[in-house]
Amino acid sequence: MKFAVNYSNPLIRLLREGSIKIDLIKCPDWEGMLAEAQPYGPITLHFDLEVGLGNTCKVDFARIKALLHSTSTPHVNTHLVTPKYFNPEDAAELNKINALWRDEIQCMIDHLGASAVALEHYPWTHANDHIRPAVDPSIFSQVILDTGCMFLLDIAHARITADTLGVDVKDYICALPLDRLVEMHITGVKTHSGVLTDHFELGDGDWVTFRWVLDQIKAGQWRKPEIVAFEYGGIGQTFMWRTNTEVLKTQVPILFDMVTSLN
Q1: What is the pLDDT of residues 121-172, one digit of tens each?
Q2: What is the CATH T-level fold of the domain 26-230, as seen in this structure?
Q3: Structural domain boundaries in the chain
Q4: Per mean pLDDT, which range of 112-116, 153-157, 192-196, 224-228 is the poorest?
Q5: Which DSSP category does 207 fall into?
Q6: Strands 195-200 and 188-192
């Protein structure tokens, strides 16, 4: 397993100083950011792709393949979604979205291959109720089973969804297709503006969940992922205010040792 961390200016400063060690710098597919990050280590890309909106087959796959070739990105992620005004109670809409999910994932597979497509789940709260079917573990798992693609587990997304559902996060995660696991994301979760939100530093509960996750992998209960990414830090207004150099300096070495100890 390789350990990745979100690109941020504080991360680059720490890497330049030699204060921390990581395997991969995790970046969005922005050429400018790639140019800035490349001098400091191998890059793995995270794409802003979504299946369920009818746009996937219009994607520039030639560009994606070129980016894969120029970085250390082993697979292309996409997120399972529904349109904003989707009605989860409408059986006809459910049938239609199920067909669209499979068609769009198949389009990605046709261009990239099944092992190079990783499906990720978004966090579900009552504020985005329309995506509820996309985070239902049985529905989500069946999409992966039917298409033969791989699975990207976001532990923070699972914690938020499990909290909304009122179930134990371990039970929620164990209902997902862990035999197809290729990538895993971890961040801290805390209440912000009255809503459970991710991309924070790890707190006590986050460490407990992550240790349990690694125990399952170590025991051979789950497929060992190729990448474990700490999605803390970033650029822009969404991330800069919650990017703290001391958090990176403290938590990254611990996570690096935890992940690489399983290799």
Answers
A1: 999 988 888 999 999 999 999 999 999 999 999 999 999 999 999 999 999 9
A2: TIM Barrel (3.20.20)
A3: 26-230
A4: 192-196
A5: H
A6: antiparallel
**Strand, coil or helix: 158:** helix
Beta bridge partners of 4: 24, 229
Length, in residues, of the chain: 263
Task: Give me 189's structure tokens.
Answer: 């979760």
Q: Which residues contact 4 (CB under 8 A, 6 or more apart)?
A: 22, 23, 24, 25, 26, 44, 227, 228, 229, 230
Tokens of 35: 């140019």
Contact between 154 and 185 under an 8 Å Cβ cutoff? The reply is: yes
Question: At 49, phi and psi to the nearest 5?
Answer: -100, 150
Give the distance from CA 37 to its chain's centroid. Answer: 20
Helix (H, G, I), strand (E, B) or coil at 205: helix
How far apart (Å, rounded) are the C-alpha atoms in residues 197 and 200? Answer: 8
Q: Looking at this protein, which amino acid is placed at residue 50?
A: E
Structure tokens at 110: 């046709």
Q: In the Cβ-directed half-sphere of 122, how many Cα atoms lie within 13 Å?
A: 21
Instruction: Report the C-alpha gap between 49 and 46 in whole angstroms.
Output: 9
Encoding tokens for residue 124? 């579900």
Beta bridge partner(s), residue 25? 5, 43
Taking the chain, what is the end-to-end CA distance rounded to the nearest angstrom? 6
- pLDDT (tens digit per residue) in 207-248: 999 999 999 999 999 999 999 999 998 887 777 677 899 999
Q: Tally Cβ neighbours within 10 Å of residue 200.
A: 17
Instruction: Give the ranges where 136-234 is alpha helix by DSSP (H).
Output: 137-147, 155-165, 169-174, 204-218
SS3 of the chain: helix, strand, coil, percent, to 5: 50, 20, 30
